[in-house]
Design a protein that fits this description.
With 659 residues, this protein is of the alpha+beta class. The protein is built from nine helices and 36 strands.
Length: 659
């Protein structure tokens, strides 16, 4: 009999010991979870990875991590620790035992709960407001927050629990307290913190006071873990089972807390869950739709799906082909390859219909279907592709030009064929077999004799004839000079300028003496078509006299600045930088970027930093001294965005300027 009693005592001691510490919901293998997938910078994809071992401890060493995209391995990716913080919801089950002092101990259970939360605030809570704490207690037939929800400073938490005195309630609505915690967790979910409920309870009858099936379904759907903390000097088997009932299905853990310090191990693990791994890589997806990302680490696997819209680049030639390119030979014998110009600058606009700008791996010029080498092709940040077309071996003819680009995903974009004519001009030289001597004139028929009184002396006739010839020569010279000045083109207009408004091309003009100067050959000016379906407008308020009324924002990438060669919407005010700002449109949303301007870009009088600023209807925009007002097209009456519309301030004749 004594042996049996001894064995029973030993088993009881082992039971107490085994339940007095920390226990977790065990897993069969390590656990990986992918969350927070960000495709706004596609083809760069960023996501968060949480890695847990068999005991729900965070795995910080991800050196052996493998990433797959639709089953294809991603060979190059980057990882970094990401502090997200934790969002803890302390729920105090203040039932009739909360003021008990176990076996004559000095502190009541409520005081132990108070000291445990204070230890968390002092020892584990991030002082820079990375963490959030909400304390929920019963009141009446429901519950309430101590102080306020989502407290970010340790002192707030300490002050809230220091003076808590529970109400005397016969029936504590524990089910409602837990639902309040889940509701608050749902409101904070978008902030990306690890979310958990820490339930202080004696755990005696949790299954009777909680709708276990309904609560666990909601907690699992919201990915909120439950960590019961068992109060009292001992935790029997039933109490442990009740705690495990809420912890294990949600990926939580439970702990027995006879002393406030016994919960420290739980708090330490919770803080580890507030540090995730951020993974970024360059995607190779080249088609739209749903795709699968897979992560593998330490024998565990995590999966998540993403959806992207991928379209080929759109390319347009920014060239005016209404005038030919005129190649001018300095001499009748000049070889074709030396006739100027030998290169012609070309400009193309590359846009991304899917809203995801990407790198180009190649650009080619097709002339009559044959690929021509490109010299110095450069794609600017504004999507302008500039390059030189080698025309040194091209004779007079009309050629069909197409620009074709291939982006980093292998998607091909090409312009429609553009006919462009080349002319060859050589100086005109008189034929070598032309007679060099002046032939003797045929004598004029004689007329009736004139009386000597009326006949002029021979010397006077010669003088008069010479004067007539001199005057005629002067008239010819004057006319030639006038014609030369009128027909000589402006040298400043000879460079191809890819900037609106469209400039009329300059035709090649002959120079005095019948020669042509190569620098006055065909000018290729860009043509940016007006977008009649503009989704937004910039209203000119002040200091932009070159624009009146409303400027349409009809593209997905609109540049603003002072240099008309670099921007779509130029402003002449000297306070505006050459490339000052950019407005990008994606899925109906407009964002403004500052391009490193000297005077800054301001929205509603706040300076735009390195991050873009999303524009709202009627936002005030300042580019230096230039003052604009942003309007969504849907908010303007039909007359407001057309000619003759009035501004908000006074009635004036307005005009839409094409960009």
């Amino acid at each position: 009999m004594r042996i049996w009693w001894g064995a029973a005592i030993i088993l009881a001691i082992l039971l107490v010991v085994s339940t007095s510490g920390f226990a977790t919901g065990q897993q069969d293998s390590p656990h990986l979870q992918i969350s927070g997938i960000d495709v706004t910078g596609f083809p760069t994809i960023i996501f968060r990875l949480e890695a847990l071992d068999n005991d729900n401890n965070s795995i910080s060493d991800v050196a052996d991590l493998a990433i797959f995209e639709d089953g294809q391995p991603i060979l190059h990716f980057e990882t970094r620790p990401l502090d997200t913080g934790v969002d803890l919801f302390f729920v105090i089950d203040a039932n009739s035992t909360i003021e008990d002092r176990d076996e004559g101990e000095g502190l009541s259970r409520r005081e132990k709960v108070r000291d445990s939360i204070i230890r968390y605030a002092n020892r584990f809570m991030d002082p820079t407001q990375m963490d959030r704490v909400t304390v929920i207690v019963p009141e009446g037939t429901g519950g309430r927050f101590l102080d306020r929800p989502s407290m970010g400073f340790p002192n707030e938490v300490i002050n809230a629990v220091n003076f808590y005195q529970p109400d005397e309630l016969d029936d504590i609505p524990l089910d409602r307290l837990l639902l309040i915690a889940l509701d608050e967790a749902a409101r904070n979910a978008q902030e990306g913190r690890y979310q958990a409920i820490v339930l202080f309870s004696d755990a005696a009858d949790l299954s009777e006071r909680v709708d276990t099936e309904g609560f666990l379904a909601l907690a699992q759907e919201q990915d909120v873990a439950v960590h019961p903390v068992i109060l009292g000097s001992r935790a029997d088997t039933h109490e442990v089972e009740q705690a495990a009932m809420l912890a294990e299905p949600t990926g939580g853990s439970y702990v027995h807390m006879p002393d406030p310090a016994d919960a420290d191990e739980l708090y330490d693990r919770l803080q580890q869950r507030g540090v995730l791994t951020e993974v970024s890589y360059r995607s190779v997806l080249d088609n739209s739709g749903q795709h699968l990302i897979t992560a593998e680490l330490a024998g565990a696997q995590g999966e998540a799906s993403l959806e992207v819209l991928v379209e080929p680049p759109l390319v347009q030639m920014a060239v005016d082909n209404s005038q030919p390119i005129v190649r001018v030979a300095g001499d009748i014998e000049t070889p074709l390859e030396l006739i100027e110009p030998t290169n012609q600058p070309l400009v193309a606009q590359v846009e991304w219909p899917d809203g995801y700008p990407r790198d180009l791996i190649s650009a080619a010029l097709l002339v009559d279907g044959r690929e021509q080498p490109l010299a110095g092709s450069v794609l600017g940040a504004d999507g302008i592709l500039t390059f030189d077309w080698d025309i040194s071996m091209l004779a007079a003819d009309t050629y069909d030009l197409r620009v074709q680009v291939v982006d980093e995903l292998g998607l091909v974009g090409a312009t429609a064929p553009l006919p462009l004519t080349i002319e060859i001009q050589r100086p005109v030289v008189a034929p070598t077999d032309a007679p060099t001597a002046v032939p003797t004139p045929t004598p004029a028929p004689t007329s009736a004799p004139v009386s000597e009184e009326r006949q002029l002396p021979d010397n006077l006739v010669l003088i008069a004839a010479g004067a007539v010839l001199v005057i005629a020569a002067l008239v010819v010279v004057a006319v030639a000079v006038l014609l030369s000045r009128r027909r000589r083109p402006d040298p400043d207009a000879t460079t191809a300028v890819p900037a609106p408004p469209v400039q009329a091309p300059l035709a090649m003009a002959p120079q005095p003496g019948g020669q042509f100067e190569p620098e006055f050959t065909q000018v290729l000016a860009p043509e940016f078509a007006a977008d009649s379906d503009a989704g937004a407008f910039l209203e000119v308020v002040e200091n932009a006299p070159e624009h009146l009324g409303f400027i349409p924002i009809g593209g997905s990438n609109i540049t603003l600045g002072r240099d008309p060669r670099r921007v779509a919407v130029p402003f002449s005010d000297r306070s505006v930088s050459r490339l000052h700002a950019r407005i990008l449109e994606s899925h109906g949303a407009y964002r403004i970027y500052d391009e490193g301007s000297a005077s800054g870009t301001y929205v509603n009088y706040e300076r735009v930093s390195l991050a873009p600023r999303t524009l709202e209807d009627k936002d005030q925009i300042h580019l230096g001294r230039v003052h604009l007002r942003f309007h969504l097209a849907s908010s303007l009456p039909p007359a407001a965005s057309g000619p003759g519309a009035d501004s908000d301030d006074e009635a004036t004749d307005t005009q839409i300027y094409d960009v």
